[in-house]
Specification:
The structure holds two protein chains of two kinds. Chain A is an all-beta fold. Helices cover 0% and strands 49% of the residues of chain A. Chain A is built from no helices and eleven strands. Classes of the chains: A mainly beta, B mainly beta.
């Protein structure tokens, strides 16, 4: 059974870079699937951050595009998120997820999420 | 302000049926497939419906999805206390070239 696990600092200072890694187990990250990051500010709804397709191409939320990089490390079965110049508004639970095989760009497997607070 | 509009809350008694609407536009729901997620308190979202009406393995048929024009609907029949959760619709937006989520609907079982 596929499992995803986010890891990274739980506290980031304003203006610094938030870096998270998602480790995939129970399957290969190179198996033709695409992968994404989604976040959820405390008490609020879900916000798509971006997706890295199996081809290696990336799509990012236009509101975050200038600050986001999603990359993949096939040798480690991991993919990563970098979010630059963070502010308090970036405080959220960050989820990594796998894109399913349907046409709706659905995320069919999710990590448990990791809370990242931005504070000095 | 989300591009997909959902009612903030829906409530009903156990055993009843509820529907949750998700209203969008031609750039998203009107021309792309919709999916739905269930988020139980303190947990990660879980895929309930994809491609407008398909259920992943293990999702009971009490949950169903439909779409008409630029609106989608999630129906839950035989409501159970374990269905108390937040529900989110999502789809691709062809103008933004990205995934958009609805604001979420909190379901309460009275």
């Amino acid at each position: 059974q596929l499992q995803l696990q986010e890891s990274g600092p739980g506290l980031v200072k304003p203006s610094q870079t938030l870096s998270l890694t998602c480790t995939v187990s129970g399957g290969s990250i190179s198996g033709g699937s695409s992968w994404g990051w989604i976040r959820q500010p405390p008490g609020k709804g879900l916000e798509w951050i971006g997706t890295i397709w199996h081809s290696g191409s990336t799509y990012y939320n236009p509101s975050l595009k200038s600050r986001v990089t999603i990359s993949i490390d096939r040798s480690k079965n991991q993919f990563s998120l970098d979010l630059d110049s963070v502010t308090a508004a970036d405080t959220a639970v960050y989820y990594c997820a796998k894109v399913g095989g349907g046409f709706s760009n659905e995320f069919d497997s999710w990590g448990q999420g990791t809370l990242v607070a931005v504070s000095s | 302000q989300s591009l997909l509009t959902q009612p903030p809350s829906v409530s009903a008694a156990p055993g009843q049926m509820i529907t949750i609407s998700c209203s969008g536009s031609s750039s998203n729901i009107g021309n792309n497939y919709v999916c739905w997620y269930q988020q139980l308190p303190g947990t990660a979202p879980k895929l309930l419906i994809y491609d407008d009406h398909k259920r992943p393995s293990g999702i009971p048929d009490r949950f169903s999805g439909s779409k008409s024009d630029a609106s989608a609907t999630l129906a839950i029949t035989g409501l159970q206390t374990g269905d108390e959760a937040d529900y989110f619709c999502a789809t691709w937006d062809s103008s933004l070239h990205g995934v958009v989520f609805g604001g979420g609907t909190t379901v309460t079982v009275l």
